[in-house]
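Message: I would value a second opinion on how I read folds in token form. Give me a protein, with the fold worked out from its sequence. Write it directly below this note and I will take it from there.
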Amino acid sequence: MLKTGIINYQHAETNLVGYCAYDNSNTNKRPLVLVFPDWTGRSGFADKKAEMLAELGYVGFAVDMYGEGVVGKSKEENIKLMTPLASDRGLLRDRVIAALNAAKKLEYVDAARIGGIGFCFGGLCVLDLARSGADIKGVVSFHGLLNSPQGLSTQPIKAKVLALHGYNDPMVPTEQVLAFQQEMDSAKVDWQFHLYGNTKHGFTNPMANDDAFGTVYNSRSEERALLAMKDFFAELFN
């Protein structure tokens, strides 16, 4: 039976409100997969992904990046919420590590088998979790921002990395894609990069319908990306 609940945790002075889902008919400890949301914050989209992961046999933990469970309701609000973290990657890194530390303490989590996924801004978050040198198995970025942090100390990346990306994503230029691939290769990471043709930013989100802005849902690319994610975690955790 699927069990869900709110998990309150802290980062410095910020109160954070995560959402956890797991199958409580299984009494064994199981892998944890953190879910880093897009720029709106920990909305129903991220929570549903945590539930999807629970149905796959994992503990899904949707992360609160903004505090108090705040969710943006417009592009302007989203930008205002995201900018302090996107412009201070040290702060962002500390916050994603706070989520990892809180979630892995849950009694039903196997702390030796942890992964993460992220969408758009959340893709940047999950990649920065890997870049932090966190002792996790792997991360998956869905149409994520790929630019590496500047001015931060680098740590060996222990996680395997899977990036799932739209070829026509206007928010991540080709130069950034190539730089990311070179970054992963130079760091000797076990990495994969899947490009989906005729696919723009936000392709996994059914609410993405702003072609002029560059965010367009693509059900076929979403299906392929989710299958790639499932295969990735099956390889890592089994």
